[in-house]
C-alpha cells in the first residue's frame, strides 16, 4: 500500500474540476429533484385543468354559482335546463356523515380493544383483519352492498332498499380502517403512567377510558373521523352502486338519492364535451376538489391541536 | 516532537441554539494517538465528528472556527468534503459493517475511488484484513455475509474498511465500548500497530484505555477543553483540579 | 359496585363490537368466495365476456388488469423512489419542504374519481391518448405516487444513521451512499410497501372509467407485437380492467348470468388482493428473518 497522503487536497488537485463523484451527485440530485418537481407540477395541473373546465359555466354566464349550490332541481335536458346540485351536495354530506357516525364507535372500540383489553389478540387478529378491510377494492364493496345490504334493507323496511342508508353502511365499513388506525395510534402514544395513575386511584378500566383516555385522545380521534369523512365524501363507485341515483334532495334514509361522485360517474361519459351539461359536471368535480382541500386543512388543524 | 498532522483553532460547534463545543484549540501530532476523555455529554464525540464534517449530517448543526489539515480549512466552502472524508477514516461505537459480504465491505471504497482491477482489489482486501489481524480468521469466507462475524470481528472489519481507502487520519468514537474484554484488547493492540501509519484520534469513556493506548490526552468538560497534555503527565500529574478529580474517579 | 357493573358491561360492549368487525370481515370474504368460487373455472378465467348470452368469461379483463398494473408500476416505482429519496435525504427543514409535504398529502387525499377526470382532460384529450392503457397507467401513477413516495421515505428513514455515515466517511458522494448503501438496506420495506400499493392499484376502478375506458377490443392472444392494434400488449388500446368490469356488469350487465359473473369476478379480485396482502406480509417477514438470522 502507498504511504498515507499528507495533504487532503493533494489527490484532489490533480483531478478535473468536475470529478466523478461530483458528476454523479449532480445527476442523482437532478433525478430526485425532477421527481419531486413532477409531483408539484401534477397537483398544480390537476387544480388548474379542473378549475378552468369547472368555472366555464359561471364565466360564460350560463349558470350562477348560487343557483348551482342551492338549486333543488337537476334537469339538464329539460326546458329550461335546470342545474341545481343541492341534491348531490346533500346526498354526499348525508352519506359521509352518517358513515362516520356508524364507523366511529366501532373504530374507537376496536382501538380500545387492541390497546387496552387484548393487545396480543389485537395485534395478531384484529389489526390484520382491519388492514385487510382497507385492502378490499371499492367495487367489491359495491357488489356486496348491492347483493346483500340492499336486498336486506328491502326485506326489513319498505321501499327499494337503495338510498342513503345503504350507501352509509357500505361506506362505514370502507372508512373503518382509517378511523381505527388513527385511534389506535393515539391510544398507543398516551403518556406513560396516565393509566396506571388512574388504576392506582381505584378507577375501573371503563372509568379510566371514559374519563381519562377519551378526553385526552379526542383531538386525534376527531382527526381520524374527519379523514374518514373525507374518504367517504370522495368515494365514487361503491356508493353509486347502492344509492339508487335519483337526483332528489333526500327526505328519508331509505329513499333513492345521489351524490356528487355518483352523478359525475354516471353522466360524464354520456354527455358531449363542451356542452353546458358536461361543463356543469366539471363544476361538480371542482366542488369535490375544493372539499378535498377543506378536509386536508381541517385535518392539519386538528393534528396541530392534537399535538399540544 | 513529531510533525503536526492537523489542528483546530477556536473551534465551536452549535446544535441549534446550544453550544456543544466552546472555542477549542488542539494540535494533533502526526502518527500518534490522541485520546479524548470526559463525562458523557461533554462534547468529545461532537468534537470528533466535526473533524471530518460528519456533523453536516445532523440538521441544525453549525461550526465556527478553524480546522486546518495540510494548511487548508476544511470548513471552507471550496473544500471538497467527499475527498476530505476519503482521507479521514472513521470508526463508530457500534460496529456498522455494510449488509454485504466481507470482501465487498472492504473492496467497496477502493473500487469507488478508481481501483477497478480485480487483482489490485484482492490485494487491498488482503492487506487491509492483515493489518487488522482479521485475515486468518476470515480468509476462507471472504464472500460470506459480514453480519455473520462476531462483534469484535465486525469492528475490526470496519477499521479495515476505513483504511482500505488510504486515509491519513483515523477517527474512532468509543470503538471498543460495545465489545467484550478480549475483543477490546485486540482493538487496543491494533491501535498501537496502526499509529505507525496513521494519526489517530480516539474518544473513550474508559480512562484506563486512554492511558494504555494514547500518546496525548484531552479532557473535556461541558464543551470546554480543560486540559490537553502528554498522556503520561495527565495521568500522573494533571495541572488542573477538575482533571485530577475526573481521573481519580471522583465524578463522571 | 355500580362502577364494577358498568365496567363489565362496557368491556362486554367493546369486545362485542370488535368481534362484530371480525364477523363482518369473515362474512364478507366467505360470502364472496362462497358465491364466486363455484363460478370460477379455467374457461371463466380465459374466455372473453358475452354481452347478451350466458357463459362469458373475464379473460381479457384479467389480462388488462395485470398488464395495466405492470405498466403503472414501471412508471410509479422510479418516480416514487426518486421523490422519496428527495423527501428523506435532500429536503431541508424549510418552508419549501413543508409545502412539498402538503402537496403530497393533498395529492394522496384526492378522490380517485377526480384523478380519473384529470386523466380524461390531460392524458386522454390533451395528449390525444384516447381511452388507452397508457392513459390509464398515467392516471394510476398519479393515484399511486404519493403512497410510493411515503413508502420510500419511511423505508430510507428506517436505515440506521451509522450506515449512512459509514458510507460518507469512506468518501462516497451522498448520492452513492444513498443508492448503494441505503437503498439496498431499505429494499425489504420498499418491496413490502410496493406490493401493498400494487394491491390497491389492482382493485382501483374509479380512476380508470374515463382513462383506460370501459371496453376492450377483440384481442388476438397470438399477436405479441406491441404496436399492432389487436395485440394485447399495445399500450394505446382501450382496456377494461377486472374492477371496471365488475362495476359495469353490476350497473348495466345484460347477460342472463350477470350476477354470477359479477360474483366470480369479485372473488377473483379479492383472491388477488388477498394474495398481494399475504404475499407482502410473508415476504416482509422472510426478508426480516434472513437479515436477523445472520446477525
Low-confidence stretches of chain B: none
**Radius of gyration from the alpha-carbon trace of chain B, in angstroms:** 18 Å
**Can you identify the CATH class of chain B?**
Alpha Beta
Number of strands of chain A: 2
Q: In the CATH classification, which architecture of the largest domain in chain A applies?
A: Orthogonal Bundle
The overall pLDDT average of chain A reads 88
Structure class of chain A? mainly alpha
Largest sheet of chain B: 6 strands, mixed
Biggest interface, chains and residues, is: A-C, 84 and 93 residues
Molecular shape of chain B: globular
Commentary on this structure:
The complex is a heterotrimer of chains A (308), B (252) and C (295). Chain A has 308 residues and is an all-alpha fold. Chain A has helices at residues 8-13, 20-54, 56-59, 65-70, 86-117, 119-135, 138-156, 164-188, 194-200, 205-234, 237-243, 260-267, 276-307, and strands at 74-75, 82-83. In chain A, a hairpin with a 6-residue loop joins β1 and β2. Chain A is globular and about 75 Å long. With 252 residues, chain B is α/β, with parallel strands linked by helices. Chain B has ten helices and ten strands. Chain B has helices at 44-50, 81-86, 102-112, 118-131, 135-138, 151-163, 181-194, 207-213, 231-236, 241-247, and strands spanning 4-15, 18-29, 33-37, 61-69, 72-73, 88-91, 169-173, 199-203, 216-221, 224-230. With 295 residues, chain C is mainly alpha-helical. Chain C has one domain: Orthogonal Bundle (MetI-like fold). Chain C is 73% helix and 0% strand. The chains are: A mainly alpha (308), B alpha/beta (252), C mainly alpha (295). Chains in contact: A-B, A-C, B-C. At the A-C interface, α2, α5, α6, α7 and α10 of A face α1, α3, α4, α5 and α6 of C.
Provide a quick synopsis of the model.
The complex is a heterotrimer of chains A (308), B (252) and C (295). Chain A is mainly alpha-helical and 308 residues long. Chain A has helices at 8-13, 20-54, 56-59, 65-70, 86-117, 119-135, 138-156, 164-188, 194-200, 205-234, 237-243, 260-267, 276-307, and strands at 74-75, 82-83.
Task: Record keyword descriptors for this entry.
heterotrimer, A: 308 residues, mainly alpha, MetI-like fold, 2 domains, two-stranded antiparallel sheet, 2 strands, 1% strand, C: 295 residues, 10 helices, 0% strand, globular
Amino acid at each position: 500500500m502507498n504511504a498515507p497522503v499528507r495533504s487532503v487536497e493533494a489527490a484532489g488537485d490533480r483531478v478535473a474540476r468536475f470529478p466523478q463523484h461530483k458528476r454523479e451527485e449532480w445527476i442523482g440530485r437532478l433525478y430526485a429533484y425532477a421527481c419531486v418537481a413532477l409531483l408539484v407540477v401534477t397537483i398544480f395541473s390537476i387544480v388548474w385543468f379542473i378549475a378552468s373546465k369547472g368555472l366555464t359555466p359561471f364565466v360564460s354566464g350560463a349558470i350562477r354559482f348560487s343557483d348551482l349550490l342551492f338549486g333543488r332541481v337537476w334537469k339538464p335536458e329539460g326546458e329550461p335546463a335546470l342545474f341545481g346540485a343541492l341534491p348531490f351536495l346533500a346526498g354526499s354530506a348525508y352519506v359521509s356523515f352518517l358513515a362516520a357516525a356508524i364507523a366511529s364507535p366501532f373504530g374507537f372500540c376496536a382501538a380500545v380493544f387492541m390497546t387496552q383489553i387484548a393487545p396480543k389478540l389485537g395485534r395478531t387478529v384484529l389489526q390484520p383483519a382491519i388492514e385487510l378491510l382497507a385492502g378490499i377494492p371499492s367495487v367489491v364493496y359495491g357488489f356486496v352492498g348491492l347483493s346483500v345490504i340492499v336486498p336486506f334493507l328491502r326485506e326489513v323496511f319498505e321501499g327499494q332498499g337503495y338510498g342513503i342508508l345503504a350507501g352509509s353502511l357500505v361506506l362505514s365499513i370502507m372508512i373503518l380502517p382509517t378511523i381505527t388506525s388513527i385511534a389506535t395510534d393515539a391510544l398507543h402514544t398516551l403518556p406513560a403512567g396516565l393509566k396506571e395513575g388512574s388504576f392506582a386511584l381505584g378507577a375501573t378500566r371503563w372509568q379510566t377510558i371514559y374519563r381519562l383516555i377519551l378526553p385526552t385522545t379526542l383531538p386525534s380521534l376527531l382527526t381520524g373521523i374527519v379523514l374518514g369523512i373525507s374518504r367517504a365524501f370522495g368515494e365514487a363507485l361503491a356508493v353509486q352502486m347502492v344509492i339508487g341515483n335519483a337526483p332528489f334532495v333526500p327526505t328519508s334514509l331509505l329513499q333513492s338519492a345521489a351524490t356528487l361522485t355518483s352523478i359525475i360517474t354516471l353522466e360524464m361519459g354520456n354527455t358531449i364535451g363542451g356542452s353546458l351539461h358536461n361543463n356543469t359536471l366539471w363544476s361538480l368535480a371542482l366542488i369535490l376538489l375544493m372539499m378535498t382541500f377543506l378536509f386536508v386543512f381541517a385535518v392539519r388543524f386538528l393534528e396541530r391541536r392534537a399535538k399540544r | 516532537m513529531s510533525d503536526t498532522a492537523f489542528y483546530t483553532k477556536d473551534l465551536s460547534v452549535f446544535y441549534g441554539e446550544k453550544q456543544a463545543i466552546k472555542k477549542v484549540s488542539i494540535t494533533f501530532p502526526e502518527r500518534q494517538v490522541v485520546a479524548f476523555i470526559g463525562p458523557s455529554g461533554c462534547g468529545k464525540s461532537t468534537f470528533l465528528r466535526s473533524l471530518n464534517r460528519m456533523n453536516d449530517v445532523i440538521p441544525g448543526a453549525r461550526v465556527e472556527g478553524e480546522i486546518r489539515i495540510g494548511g487548508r480549512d476544511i470548513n471552507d466552502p471550496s473544500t471538497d468534503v467527499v475527498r476530505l472524508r476519503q482521507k479521514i477514516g472513521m470508526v463508530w461505537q457500534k460496529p456498522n459493517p455494510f449488509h454485504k459480504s466481507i470482501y465487498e465491505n472492504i473492496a467497496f471504497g477502493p473500487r469507488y475511488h478508481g481501483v477497478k482491477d480485480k487483482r489490485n482489489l484482492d490485494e487491498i482486501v488482503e492487506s487491509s484484513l492483515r493489518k487488522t489481524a482479521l485475515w486468518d480468521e476470515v480468509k476462507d469466507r471472504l464472500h460470506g455475509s459480514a453480519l455473520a462475524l462476531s462483534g469484535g470481528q465486525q469492528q475490526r472489519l470496519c477499521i479495515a474498511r476505513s483504511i482500505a481507502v488510504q486515509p491519513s487520519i483515523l477517527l474512532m468514537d468509543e470503538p471498543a465500548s460495545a465489545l467484550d474484554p478480549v475483543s477490546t484488547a485486540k482493538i487496543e493492540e491494533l491501535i498501537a500497530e496502526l499509529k505507525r501509519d496513521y494519526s489517530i484520534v480516539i474518544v473513550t469513556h474508559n480512562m484506563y484505555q486512554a492511558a494504555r493506548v494514547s500518546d496525548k490526552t484531552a479532557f473535556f468538560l461541558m464543551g470546554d477543553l480543560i486540559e490537553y497534555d502528554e498522556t503520561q503527565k495527565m495521568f500522573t500529574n494533571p495541572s488542573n483540579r477538575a482533571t485530577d478529580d475526573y481521573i481519580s474517579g471522583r465524578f463522571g | 359496585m355500580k362502577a364494577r357493573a358498568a365496567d363489565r358491561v362496557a368491556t362486554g360492549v367493546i369486545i362485542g363490537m370488535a368481534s362484530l368487525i371480525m364477523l363482518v370481515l369473515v362474512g364478507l370474504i366467505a360470502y364472496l368466495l362462497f358465491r364466486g368460487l363455484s363460478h370460477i373455472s379455467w374457461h371463466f378465467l380465459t374466455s372473453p365476456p358475452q354481452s347478451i348470452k350466458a357463459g362469458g368469461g373475464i379473460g381479457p379483463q384479467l389480462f388488462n388488469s395485470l398488464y395495466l398494473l405492470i405498466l403503472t408500476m414501471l412508471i410509479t416505482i422510479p418516480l416514487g423512489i426518486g421523490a422519496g429519496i428527495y423527501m428523506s435525504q435532500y429536503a431541508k427543514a424549510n418552508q419549501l419542504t413543508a409545502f412539498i409535504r402538503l402537496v403530497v398529502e393533498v395529492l394522496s387525499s384526492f378522490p380517485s374519481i377526480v384523478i380519473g377526470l384529470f386523466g380524461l382532460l390531460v392524458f386522454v384529450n390533451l395528449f390525444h391518448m384516447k381511452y388507452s392503457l397508457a392513459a390509464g397507467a398515467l392516471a394510476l401513477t398519479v393515484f399511486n405516487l404519493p403512497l410510493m413516495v411515503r413508502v420510500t421515505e419511511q423505508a430510507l428513514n428506517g436505515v440506521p444513521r451509522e450506515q449512512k455515515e459509514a458510507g460518507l466517511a469512506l468518501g462516497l458522494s451522498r448520492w452513492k451512499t444513498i443508492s448503494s448503501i441505503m437503498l439496498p438496506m431499505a429494499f425489504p420495506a420498499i418491496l413490502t410497501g410496493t406490493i401493498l400499493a400494487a394491491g390497491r392499484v389492482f382493485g382501483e376502478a374509479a380512476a380508470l372509467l374515463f382513462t383506460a375506458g370501459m371496453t376492450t377490443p377483440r384481442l388476438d392472444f397470438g399477436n405479441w407485437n406491441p404496436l399492432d392494434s389487436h395485440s394485447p400488449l399495445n399500450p394505446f388500446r382501450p382496456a377494461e380492467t377486472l374492477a371496471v368490469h365488475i362495476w359495469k356488469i353490476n350497473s348495466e350487465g345484460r347477460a342472463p348470468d350477470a350476477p354470477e359473473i359479477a360474483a366470480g369476478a369479485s372473488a377473483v379480485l379479492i383472491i388477488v388482493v388477498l394474495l398481494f396482502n399475504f404475499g407482502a406480509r410473508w415476504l416482509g417477514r422472510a426478508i426480516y428473518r434472513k437479515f436477523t438470522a445472520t446477525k
